[in-house]
Amino acid sequence: MTAQRLTRQTVAALTVPPGKLEAFLWDAEVKGFGVRASAGGSRRYVVQYRVPGQRATKKLSIGAVDTLSVDEARRQARTLLANALTGNDPHAEKAAAKKAAAVTLGSVADAYLKHCEVRQKPGTFYQTKLHLTKHWAPLRGLPLHKVRRADVATRLTELRDSSGGVSANRSRSALSALFAWAIGEGLTEANPVVGTHKPAEEKTRERVLSDAELKAIWGTCRNDAYGRIVRMLILTAQRREEVGGMAETELDLDAALWTLPAARAKNHREHLVPLSAPAVAILREAPRLEGRSLVFGEGAGGFSGWSRAKNALDSRLTEAGTPLAPWTLHDLRRTAATMMADRLGVAPHIIEAILNHVSGARAGVAGVYNRASYAVEKRAALDLWAAHVAGLCEMREEAPPQASA
């Protein structure tokens, strides 16, 4: 059929001859641009092209005639044909775009979570999964490459208003880590989180509890799992998750020693924690349940329900007439370290050893030797700290356990 300039009228007049499945009408203005009519009645704009170096001629649909004007279809055809002349196959690009559209934030997040599950500690993985599956749920259906910085910024504002600034900060970090991983996997080219503002500015906490506050917390603890955990946090100066996930196999109560395995330590180094007499007493009194390998809690990950238990403790403190200014369980660790230094004269490097911090003095080969030599000093410091706490809290102080360092 002779080419003629496509217009709305010529497109509408195109018919399929009897016995044929389709018919084409080619534009006289742009070679390779045309319209295809099917025997079923549909009409679509198309381009016909050949990429240099390839023998085959290809056709590609631009869009339905009832959704595109002739002028817009012609403009798109010019772009596609120009790309073909430079060696870029429009058909391959369309297939790639379709494939990219199938790679959504949600599908990549699921793959990333599988990557994290075997690399992160259970508590960390739980938080990562929470942020990526719940907090970023409204964006999970978007193609990964179409997640814009504006989308991220808008959602961060929503999260700040609904969950608080700190939680929104954590969600921001989780999404940024996902995109960094996706870039490394070749799934996308850019991280849209970069350049967004943190929903909240976080200050380094410096809260150190007073003697009266420490006494109030100790005295308000009940003889339950959470109460024992809080008191162990005070006496050992260790981290919440480390105490909450304590396993029976980590304890040698006869030797008054808790060995925190590298797999559970924040710095991935085995950590020896000497146990003072009050700490041993707490652990001996903790009920043992048949079939449970952990000292506290009922689940596989140790104690859970931290927020609920902390709120209940704060309520009891208020009811007892000793309400505290906002505080966290981590403040107990900071308080122990500060008081050991300021009140008891414990050397800074011994406090770092108790906290399982790795400083220059404890890194590398030196750390291997110091690990053993500091055991005696750590035990002496924690016994001294326990005696200080006993004096504050008016608890009966037992004789220090007879145990080797």
TrEMBL record:
<dbReference type="InterPro" id="IPR038488">
    <property type="entry name" value="Integrase_DNA-bd_sf"/>
</dbReference>
<protein>
    <submittedName>
        <fullName>Site-specific integrase</fullName>
    </submittedName>
</protein>
<feature type="domain" description="Core-binding (CB)">
    <location>
        <begin position="103"/>
        <end position="183"/>
    </location>
</feature>
<comment type="similarity">
    <text>Belongs to the 'phage' integrase family.</text>
</comment>
<dbReference type="InterPro" id="IPR010998">
    <property type="entry name" value="Integrase_recombinase_N"/>
</dbReference>
<dbReference type="InterPro" id="IPR050808">
    <property type="entry name" value="Phage_Integrase"/>
</dbReference>
<keyword id="KW-0233">DNA recombination</keyword>
<dbReference type="Pfam" id="PF13356">
    <property type="entry name" value="Arm-DNA-bind_3"/>
</dbReference>
<dbReference type="InterPro" id="IPR025166">
    <property type="entry name" value="Integrase_DNA_bind_dom"/>
</dbReference>
<dbReference type="InterPro" id="IPR044068">
    <property type="entry name" value="CB"/>
</dbReference>
<dbReference type="Pfam" id="PF02899">
    <property type="entry name" value="Phage_int_SAM_1"/>
</dbReference>
<dbReference type="GO" id="GO:0015074">
    <property type="term" value="P:DNA integration"/>
</dbReference>
<feature type="domain" description="Tyr recombinase">
    <location>
        <begin position="204"/>
        <end position="383"/>
    </location>
</feature>
<dbReference type="GO" id="GO:0006310">
    <property type="term" value="P:DNA recombination"/>
</dbReference>
<dbReference type="InterPro" id="IPR004107">
    <property type="entry name" value="Integrase_SAM-like_N"/>
</dbReference>
<keyword id="KW-0229">DNA integration</keyword>
<dbReference type="InterPro" id="IPR011010">
    <property type="entry name" value="DNA_brk_join_enz"/>
</dbReference>
<keyword id="KW-0238">DNA-binding</keyword>
<dbReference type="InterPro" id="IPR013762">
    <property type="entry name" value="Integrase-like_cat_sf"/>
</dbReference>
<dbReference type="GO" id="GO:0003677">
    <property type="term" value="F:DNA binding"/>
</dbReference>
<dbReference type="InterPro" id="IPR002104">
    <property type="entry name" value="Integrase_catalytic"/>
</dbReference>
<dbReference type="Pfam" id="PF00589">
    <property type="entry name" value="Phage_integrase"/>
</dbReference>
